[in-house]
Amino acid sequence: MPLIECVPNVSEGRRADVIAALGAAIAGPGIHMLDRSSDASHNRTVYTFAGEPDPLRDAVLRLFAAAVDAINLQIHDGVHPRIGAVDVVPFVPLRDATMDDCVALAKSTAALVAERLHVPAFLYEEAASNEERRSLSNLRRGGANGVALRMKQPAWRPDFGPDFPHPTAGATAIGARPILIAYNVNLASNRLGVAQRIARLIRESSGGLPHVKALGLQLDHSIVQVSMNLTNYKETSMTAVFDAIARDAAVDGVRVLESEIVGLVPADALPADPVRRLKLRAQDLDRVLERRLPPL
């Protein structure tokens, strides 16, 4: 049977009891929990788990039910943009799984989320119903308020569910995609403009590095961050991205403090000495996908 990875991003990264309860909701027969990454500044948790299609669908439905009860997007705050309590749910093909398997799973899961929990669901990436919805950044433009306004337009009706957000859980994006790397580089500066300038320089949509999506974020009074998704690490590596950021930061007299991985990375994405080469946090050294997968 195909093994598929699921990597939901949930809009809660501060309340330990809620984070644990959401993880417990995911757990169930046939589910292999691989990782959990929480960030208080982002106010976001990324769960990584794997399984066959039917157990995965059930786990995502349990996650949505728990999140709708526990998270109120109207009082949520965090530096990362979001449209929902369960903001995005990607399915990723692993062993013996195809992208078509993941597209079918995304569509059936989105339909059930909308039917049972009344959360409007948009399909994105390989599952998208049209090209404009393929990019997650298009769906999430303007955050929860932006998607609420767009949903009033006929062209932006959700793929499943009501044409207005859930009162506390907002909306969600559910899709299928290849493996990506969520990678952040923290700068020893409180100047948000520096991080935003670098993000504009390196992201593909602004003419920067291929397969790089980037935002400049303020973490606290002393640190800013270039937060990224690397959608094809074999063509644009973590090392290439790190070097570009370090070089561009130096123009403003700013140094790289550290870099961090959110979720898991394939083993071949990391250089030989990532602590030295990428200033990678020591606690991220075990975030290697292959080491967490269930045995064959």
Measure the end-to-end span: 11 Å
Task: Label the overall shape.
Answer: globular
Q: How many domains is the backbone divided into?
A: 2
Helix content: 25-40%
Largest sheet, described in full?
Answer: 7 strands, mixed
What is the CATH level 1 assignment of the largest domain? Alpha Beta
CATH homology group of the largest domain: Formiminotransferase, N-terminal subdomain
> Uncertain runs with pLDDT below 50, 5 residues or more?
none
- Provide the CATH architecture of the largest domain: 2-Layer Sandwich
Order of helices and strands: EEHEEHEHEHHEEHEEHEHH
Which structural class is indicated by helix and strand composition? alpha+beta
Number of contiguous helices: 9
Strand content: 15-25%
Instruction: State the CATH topology of the largest domain.
Output: Formiminotransferase-cyclodeaminase, Chain B, domain 1
Mean pLDDT: 96
Oligomer: single chain
Descriptive account of the structure:
- This protein has 296 residues and is an alpha+beta fold.
- The chain has two domains: 4-176, Formiminotransferase-cyclodeaminase, Chain B, domain 1 (2-Layer Sandwich), CATH 3.30.990.10; 181-292, Alpha-Beta Plaits.
- It is built from nine helices and eleven strands.
- The chain has helices spanning 16-26, 53-70, 99-117, 136-139, 143-150, 192-202, 238-251, 274-278, 289-292; strands spanning 4-6, 9-10, 32-39, 44-51, 86-93, 121-125, 172-176, 181-187, 212-218, 224-230, 256-262.
- The strands form two sheets. Strands 1, 2, 3, 4, 5, 6 and 7 form a seven-stranded mixed sheet that branches. Strands 9-10-8-11 form a four-stranded antiparallel sheet.
- Helix 1 runs antiparallel to helix 2 and helix 6 packs across helix 7 (238-251).
- The longest helix is centred in the middle third of the chain and has 19 residues, at 99-117.
- It is globular, with a radius of gyration of 18 Å.
- The mean pLDDT is 96.
